[in-house]
Write a structure and sequence with these properties.
By secondary structure, this protein is α+β, with helices and mostly antiparallel strands. It has helices spanning 20-33, 57-64, and strands at 39-43, 68-73, 76-81. Helix 1 (20-33) packs parallel to helix 2 (57-64).
Length: 90
């Protein structure tokens, strides 16, 4: 017997440099303060394979408290996760 679980999904879209990542960071902080775990998926639409998360949006998501940050683009799907008990990303 499968246990049904529902998770809300929030999609944020906008023009370049319109504040999407800053809004996402604030939401991650707010959700974390409520005890909710969060994960993000970002589309990398700039051509080529996505870079490592440092100094990128996915790294900012992790530093804000996301449990996982995924990046999709150029037929590639990368994942970055927080390790429980590991060093802080902040």
């Amino acid at each position: 017997m499968a246990v049904e679980q529902y998770r809300p999904v929030l999609q944020i879209t906008g023009f370049q440099n319109s504040g999407k990542t800053t809004l996402t960071e604030k939401l991650i902080h707010a959700f974390s303060d409520r005890g909710w775990s969060t994960g993000t998926i970002k589309h990398h639409g700039h051509g080529g394979t996505p870079d490592s998360p440092e100094d990128k949006d996915s790294g900012r998501h992790l530093a804000a408290g996301a449990s996982a940050a995924f990046v999709e683009g150029a037929a590639c799907f990368t994942s970055n996760h927080r390790v429980p008990g590991g060093p802080s990303s902040a």
